[in-house]
Amino acid sequence: MCTVNAVVASLSPAVANVEVRLLGPVQVSADGRPLPLGRAQMRAVLAILAVEAGRPVPTEALAARVWDEDPPRAWREVLYSHVARIRRVLAAATGGGPVRLVRQPAGYLLDIHTELIDLHRFRRLTAAGIAEHSDPARVALLRPALDLWQGVPLADVRGGWADRSRTAWYQHRLDAVVAWADAELRLGHGDRVTVVLRNLVGEYPMAEPLAGALMRALAQAGRVAEALEHYAALRARLAEELGAEPAPELQALHQAVLRDQLPRPASPPTAAPAIAPPRGAARTPFPRPAQLPAAAAGFVGRREALRDLDALLDTPGHPSTAIVSAVSGTAGVGKTTLAVHWARRVRERFPDGQLYADLRGFDGSGLIVPPSAVVRRFLLALGVTGERVPDDPEAAADLYRSLLSGRRVLILLDNARDAAQVRPLLPGGPAAFCLITSRNRLTPLVAVEGAHAIALDLLSTAEAHTLLESRLGADRVAAEPEATDRVIVHCARLPLALGITAARASQSGFPLDVLARDLADERRRLSALDAGDPSSDVAAVFSWSCRALSDPAARLFRLLGLHPGPDIDADAAACLAGTAASRATILLSELTAANLLTERSPGRFASHDLLRAYATDLCRETDPAAERDAATRRLLDHYLHTCLAADRLLDPARDAIPLPPGEPSPGTTVHRHGDDAQARAWLTAEHQVLLGVVQLAVDTGHDRRAWQLVWALDTFLHRRGFWPDRSRMWQVAVDAAGRLGDPVAAAHAYRDLGRADNRRGHYTHSDEHLHRALDLFGRAGDRAGQAHTHRALASLCERLGRPRQALRHDREALALFEAAGSLPGQADALNSIGWDHCLLGDYAQALRCCRRALDLHRRTGDVWGEATTWDSIGYAHHHLGNHPDAVECYARALELVRALGDRYFEADTMTRLADTHEAAGDSGAARDSLRTALDILTDLDHADAEEIRARLKALI
């Protein structure tokens, strides 16, 4: 029989690392990392194609399933956009390999090995398992099949198709569960199935085959009364809701249970070895402590963590030591809730008892419980009388481990401070299971004791919704969907914060909108999340984690509240703290180990909004204003000087910044990039951070630095096509220049704001800003500034369909650049004049101007200018009928512009290349070029995408 692993191993590495999941939220992962899938409709498209993997789905059928027979007017364009995005996700995962989404005459087809899709793997395993005659083989196939379920199938897809699919898959799952349970019971493994069946019966209370399997499991375990009670409850439910009696098969099973006539297992389970009580222990029947706390009401989600814990119990073979699992996570994330919920759910699998201790590792009182005190309590619970508990801590620990040897006991150690606190409490025998929760990661336990680490993150948005529904009722949450979403965002999806807010809503009766507005005020948010005692006060709970930090790490945590987010690297953290990057890395690791930070990607650290708000408040209360100001200046200078260095690599021919920065503040680290590729990578990683840093500069009164930062960002924002960001940043620069009272700064800001608005199609605003800039440059006698502004006005005229006005502005720009002695400016103007001649139909004159421009661009080393000029020359050749020459020129332009990372320019050139291919009669190449352009413009959310879609539709 071919196993899943064997099948997957036979695939190429580029394919085998990919998995598509439908039995839960729709997800594509590569190397274990989920890939971005965008909106729900895109997930629906992928899910439909994955269900039909290997078979084409007609376009109309695909649309009917996505939109429930009611697609939007432009559904073909929208559908193609989703398909294009899915293609990019798959290409990123496989490097363009054989996992592909292709268009065929019969429709769209997902070309992927079905073993890489969990639904198809589930179907294959269950079919093979049910067909097996050997019970061990049947279990070996069905157990991994059932483990593929990760919650509600297609959880984030709505509509009739998804509902119908879920119904069919649920039935398939029930059949597989019953077949698996029957096989386990015949093997005498009733303890393995009881908990699973109980949980599923709660989900499917009317499923009679499932009820029968549970009755057999309970009866096999000797719990006949529970089996009979379950039958009675099911019979009453059937009578009340359906007016029917249980099926004859279930009635016969009921009689067999009553008469003790169920078949015996073929091979009864091996009993735990009996041992003699160790010296010092009372020779009485072994007590069965049941110390687990009550489960919290309204437990939701955490399916992956629960599945991981379940998997540890089902580990094949017998480990030589106790199984230890360490659940870690930030304060208030619900570690104890998860641990208690799971422990109570599986306690029947530990017939020798359950021990529990709150170690108070992060208690507000600071009274950490010593391990020796816990050992004494556990010994008393295990039947050792007080006078027989050894005074020596090591002897007591030895007695504790001896008592547990060979016993199936669950030990829950809650709220541990560190590994040293829990080591004396770990059992030594293989039958016990020890579950630990801690705000720290307990890495030493993982490294030395082989503990299984489970990191608990914030709730998903869907889980947060469910939590609020469980506390407030689904109707109340559904009545205020927007307010509910805002509450979830402001509570950062932290279970403690959501629980406090739900309690306030329940007790006060206020609309959720009122509470959402209260939470929206950052200054009042933490005080609004205080339910009246330290354990239900978010700020107090956070403070207990901070008390466990070293002083330098605590100081860095506070200073991180000055950073605008969303994440930070070691260089920026070093500047905040005024220390070396190597030292900052150590402190960041300490904060990460304490779950006050998360390393979202290698070298980049973040915390959720409530922790950030707490750090900000703590910094204001603890650190003097002078220290905060110095840290802010170092941070701003780090980003400013690093960004300026990156910009110089991206555009070496660019004029020098008109407002030069001074030397960086003492203690500032400036990152140096090796080349333009590294500079682009840094800017891409820091994109959102840099936008926030500009606003931070404004908010803290550093207008000059704010203006300089915007200038340093412009090349990157322009070439990546971030038009809204570019407009917003230059508006900030205009305002900053006004506060500075600097007309030169204002002139540059108005000019580049005009350029940005032109790109966005805001032509009236663009014209106003550019003429304002031209006036300011004229008053200052700045010829180069005037020339660049004329060039911007020429571009605006071109977009407005006024090529002769554009030519006048470009000629004025050339004269001004010549007077200013600017060779790069002259080259730029000559290329633009050539382009104007193209638009006016004088292609021979256009080539003469552009060739002069190309020579000057090469002399000055302006790669971007060279790329634009090759594009212009290609356009001229196209209209002269020289199609091979045009294709070659466009290819040169694309090679240069891709290296520069200017995505809009690439799309623009690809569109013109498509024109040339179409004119030359190569419609296939034209379609490929247009598709590439459309993918880029769709990513940029650019209005030109609609025109390309229409052209592509006409070509197809």
From TrEMBL:
Organism domain of life: Bacteria
Segments for region (Disordered): 262-284
Annotated OmpR/PhoB-type domain residues: 10-112
UniProt biased composition (Low complexity): 272-284
Residue windows of the TPR repeats: 867-900
GO BP field: phosphorelay signal transduction system; regulation of DNA-templated transcription
UniProt entry tagged with the keyword Metal-binding: no
InterPro entries per UniProt: AfsR-DnrI-RedD_regulator (IPR051677), BTAD (IPR005158), OmpR/PhoB-type_DNA-bd (IPR001867), P-loop_NTPase (IPR027417), Sig_transdc_resp-reg_C-effctor (IPR016032), TPR-like_helical_dom_sf (IPR011990), TPR_rpt (IPR019734), WH-like_DNA-bd_sf (IPR036388)
GO molecular function: ADP binding; DNA binding
Positions in coiled-coil regions: none
DNA-binding region: 10-112
Keywords tagged on the record: DNA-binding, TPR repeat, Transcription, Transcription regulation
PROSITE patterns hit by this protein: OMPR_PHOB, TPR
PANTHER family: TRANSCRIPTIONAL REGULATOR REDD (PTHR35807:SF1), TRANSCRIPTIONAL REGULATOR REDD-RELATED (PTHR35807)
Family named by the database record: Belongs to the AfsR/DnrI/RedD regulatory family.
Record protein name field: SARP family transcriptional regulator
